[in-house]
Amino acid sequence: MKINSEYNTKESLLKLYNKPLLELVYQSATIHRKYHNPREVQMSSLISIKTGGCSEDCGYCPQSAKYETDVNAQKLMSVDNVIDQAKNAKKNGSSRLCMGAAWREVRDNRDFDNVVEMVQKVNSMGMEVCCTLGMLSDEQAKRLKNAGLYAYNHNLDSSEEYYSDIISSREYNDRLNTIDNVRKSGISLCSGGIIGMGEKIEDRIGLLMSYMKMENPPESIPINALVAVEGTPLEDTKEIKSWEIIRMIAITRIAFPSSVVRLSAGRNSLSIEAQGLCFMAGASSIFAGDTLLTTPNPEFNEDMEMFDVLGLIPKKPFQDGAQPTSHTDQINENKKQLAEKREKELLLARKNAEKLNFQPRVIKSVDSLTNDK
Ligand code: SAM
Ligand code: DTB
Ligand code: SF4
Predict the structure, then answer these.
(1) What pLDDT, on a 0 to 100 scale, did the predictor assign at position 354?
(2) What integer pLDDT is reported at residue 104 of this predicted model?
(3) Where along the chain do its domains lie?
(4) What is the CATH code of the structural domain delimited by 7-330?
(5) Residue 96 near residue 45 (C-beta atoms within 8 A)
(6) Rounded to whole angstroms, how far apart are CA atoms 52 and 103?
(7) Which residues line the pocket of ligand 2, CB cutoff 6 A?
(8) Element (H, E) at 219
(9) Residue 199, Cβ neighbours under 10 Å: how many?
(10) Which end of the chain has fewer surrounding CB within 10 Å, N or C?
(11) Contact between residue 169 and residue 55 where contact means Cβ atoms under 8 Å apart
């Protein structure tokens, strides 16, 4: 069941949100175990393949070039480096890899060509590959799908009403357009939001209502709690209480019974008990590893202890959808063929020069040409 039509209005969702906490958790846990294995939690790893220097002004984000934070802008990581990190993540039990780039939008350039290659290689390792690269055209979405991308993450982050309070460099509709392009390409959609940015409860409900209105709501809904970072406009925002996260997870689970609800950023301030209630309420995924994109996350060993204490088991890949096939990427293939052709031409030219006994002119050193000595 994609949506729960009992809760497809703002009023019904608000009433649900305000239910006595344990009643709410009991209701969401009941739905959760009907649609999911309650012991399974997916470990997903994040790699920040392109960090910092982003032209957008998202008020929560330490990677925006508009704010002075500790994040230094870096170039796109190399394909080899990404694959090494992906192998390590797989070895540690992650079945999904999410590659994030601090881009406003994807551009058709060499960096994107490399991201396409990363997608092909990680998919061939048998992991679910997810990308979050900013806005995407329909052609770019098709190219990623062809390369074997499993999911695309593009968050609406809050309600349409609250959006302009946190971001001025793009509009809600821009996000919706990318979501549309992802949908048209057939890539699985991961889209959710952040709570604890100073929004009202109605804005949290508004975020879910945006997904309710979709013909095809997201298969994956990450719920992030704001990680307030020094230097960003939201640096002094008061941390939200764990039960607000639990409530948000519970209503998301009830409203979208078959989607995967992800307990995402903000786990560093949650006890094992609080996280346990999040899993009970319907979360079935975490980001594993001591760093999210740029901010801290619980250590791998702490999470292993938590899995042990709570009796959780890591979820295997492709339980909710088949592994995509990676097809040849024509742009990268043409580039490769051109490079091979050039290499052959160069080799031939060298051979011909040797045949003609061509001796390159030896240029005398500058010293020997001067009369200074
Ligand atoms: N640039 C791309 C974009 O904005 O879609 C991809 C990367 S962006 C960092 C991915 C998501 O990270 C954002 O949509 C937001 O939900 C989340 N995020 C960023 N900074 C955060 C913070 N300080 N606390 C919680 N979540 C955050
Ligand atoms: C999502 O919703 N949360 C993740 C993932 N999708 C890309 C990112 C969280 C980022 C938290 C801030 C940081 O580490 O920079
Ligand atoms: Fe850029 Fe994404 Fe951060 Fe916004 S959230 S500033 S688009 S990296």
Answers:
(1) 87
(2) 97
(3) 7-330, 331-372
(4) 3.20.20.70
(5) yes
(6) 8
(7) 46, 62, 98, 100, 132, 153, 155, 192, 222, 224, 227, 264-265, 292-295
(8) none
(9) 22
(10) C
(11) yes
Residue of 50, 55, 63 with the most ligand 3 atoms within 8 Å of its CB, for mutation: 63
Rg, Å, the chain Cα set: 25
Q: What does the pLDDT read at residue 116?
A: 98
Structure tokens at 61: 């984000």
Whether ligand 1 lies within 6 angstroms of the CB of 209 is answered as no
pTM: 0.94
pLDDT at 364 (0 to 100): 55
Ligand 3, atom 7, residue with closest C-alpha: 104
Question: 153 CA distance to ligand 2 centroid (A)?
Answer: 10
**Which residues belong to the active site?**
54, 58, 61, 98, 130, 190, 262
Q: Which ligand is nearest to the CA of 60?
A: 1
Q: Which residues of the chain have pLDDT under 50?
A: 366-373
**pLDDT value at position 204?**
98
pLDDT value of position 214: 96
**Closest by CA position to 120, among listed 100, 145, 101, 91:** 145
290: left (phi over 0), alpha (psi -120 to 50) or beta: alpha
- The minimum-distance atom of ligand 3 relative to the CA of 170 is 7
Taking a C-beta distance cutoff of 8 angstroms, is the pair 220, 190 a contact? Answer: yes
pLDDT at 347: 93
To 5 degrees, how large is the angle CA 161–CA 164–CA 169? 145
Contact residues of ligand 3, CB 6 A cut-off: 54, 56, 58, 61, 63-64, 102, 104, 134
Q: Tell me, in angstroms, the distance from the centre of ligand 3 to residue 103's CA.
A: 7
